[in-house]
Amino acid sequence: IKKIPQDKWIDSSLALIFDGYDFISKRCKRYQSNIFQTRLMLEKTICFKGEEAAKIFYDKTKFTRKNAAPDRVKKTLFGEKGIQGMDGDAHLHRKQMFMSLMSKERIQEVGTLTQKQWHNYAKKWERMDTIVLFEEAREVLCRVACTWAGVPLEESEVKLRSQQFEAMIAGSGVVGPKHWQGRKARKENEQWIETIIEKVRNHQLEVPEISATYIFANHRDLSGELLDKRVAAVELINVLRPIVAIDRYITFGALALHEHPECRPKLLESEDYLRAFVEEIRRFYPFFPFASARVRQDFDWQGYHFPEGTRVLLDLYGTNRDPQSWDKHDVFYPERFLNFSELDSFKFIPQGGGDYHTNHRCPGEWITIELLKVTMTFLIQSINYNVPKQDLRINHLKMPTVPASGFVIKNVNLC
Ligand code: HEM
To answer: Which of 21, 181, 265, 319 could form a disulfide with 286 if both were Cys (CB 3.0 to 4.6 A apart)?
Structure first.
């Protein structure tokens, strides 16, 4: 048995705040190893990265998600008693509920809704001086998410609800006031959605039978019971909130178009190139930093011992940029995806890895890809705009992050 390299500090929680997305990669470099052990929030934690680490991380016989997510993430980003912390048959059954939303037709529909919203917003932008794309995308996606999922959204609520989703996302990786705003936003948002679930259950509100709202309100768990209304709300928010979170990838996509104008004509010529460009956005830019799990029972891997119950963090961002897996790992180069079967690869895991149905891999990956394709096409084909001088730096200490200016555009005209 080999000794796992140990981080030298008694507790590295502060270092995590100071190193952000680079916390695991930096230490892997320091210890010349893809794995090391540290203490986070006073708890022994094994961190690892790379394709082989991802393969073992998604072996369900080795790891469980029970009690794996930190409390601060549950109170903001995930919610309590949702799918992320489930295990075994109960997880499979709950996952099926999410996967039933992801038919080809339903994904096309969410794409069409997004296209329409962009056009509505572009008409408004023509009369505006400056537009912060990140903020506009948040509202566009909030409207899209609610319409697609069957959640009624009053015009007067759009700003409030979009801000609540953003606060839940932004509050998960920070300490201080922003974190508490995230907790408050989750509480209020859960109350809102819970009322909607109740209204659907007692027929005060009719929603389409194919919608997430209808399906989740009527879903029965393995014992045949309806979900507790709070849990149904947490799960419905697990559809709405991450659709809104695509605003970050959209902002990064606009930045990529700005910094790589040579890609523009290729994007219009070829559907394959468009897909490759979108995949490179998901590989290159930092979003979901790490996934966490616990060792289900003692096992050995590559000569290292993993004791039962230990918390483990897989570096998603570091794996997507691992020089051992990727040529020109720190260069934005969409061509790499022209001949790549990414969906069963463990080296490309921006939204997790493994099997969608049986594992914790993100069920929203196709929606994310579709909305990015629609949005990139819109930015190139449907509007002209200028990009004024601004601070486009990406702060790696903020998790999740976005370019500092939020990507400002000016002089927008519909083509
Ligand atoms: C899980 C990323 C969009 C719904 C995950 C995971 C990641 C992720 C990293 C965890 C994988 C793991 O634990 O192994 C992202 C990113 C997105 C995105 C970066 C882009 C904005 C979406 C969308 C939806 C969605 C659009 C739904 C419409 C979920 C759900 C889970 C999940 C329900 C939990 C799955 C489970 O535990 O079985 N996502 N996601 N995500 N995602 Fe996404």
So the answer is: 21
Tokens 């890609």 belong to residue: 263
Q: How far is the CA of 364 from the centre of ligand 1 (A)?
A: 6
Whether residue 253 has its Cβ less than 6 Å from ligand 1: no
Protein residue whose Cα sits closest to atom 5 of ligand 1? 362
Domains and CATH numbers, the chain: 13-414 (1.10.630.10)
CA 111 vs CA 117, 132, 135, 188, 376: distances in Å: 10, 22, 19, 28, 12
Nearest CA to ligand 1 atom 29: 362
Please give the structure tokens belonging to residue 118. 């962009």
ipTM: 0.99
Spacing, Cα 145 to ligand 1 middle (Å): 15
Query: H or E element: which one contains 263?
Result: none
Q: Would you state the pLDDT for residue 343?
A: 59
Nearest CA to ligand 1 atom 20: 246
Spatial distance between the Cα atoms of 271 and 277, rounded to a whole number of angstroms: 10
Cβ–ligand 1 contact at 241 (below 6 Å): no
Q: Which residues of 326-342 are buried (b: 16+ CB within 10 A; e: fewer)?
A: beeeeebbbebbeeeeb
Q: What value does the mean pLDDT take over residues 291-298? A: 97
Measured on CA atoms in the order 27, 51, 47, 252, is the torsion positive or negative?
Answer: positive
Q: Could you tell me the two tokens for 54?
A: 């991802």
CA distance 122 to 379: 10
**Could you tell me which of 359, 364, 344 has the C-alpha nearest to residue 64?**
359
- CB of 291 within 6 A of ligand 1: the answer is yes
> Which numbered atom of ligand 1 lies nearest the CA of 58?
14
245 C-beta closer than 6 A to ligand 1: yes
Q: Burial-class residue 34 by CB neighbours within 10 Å (0-12, 13-18, 19+).
A: buried
Report the atom number in ligand 1 closest to the C-alpha of 246: 21
- Residue 288: CB within 6 Å of ligand 1? yes
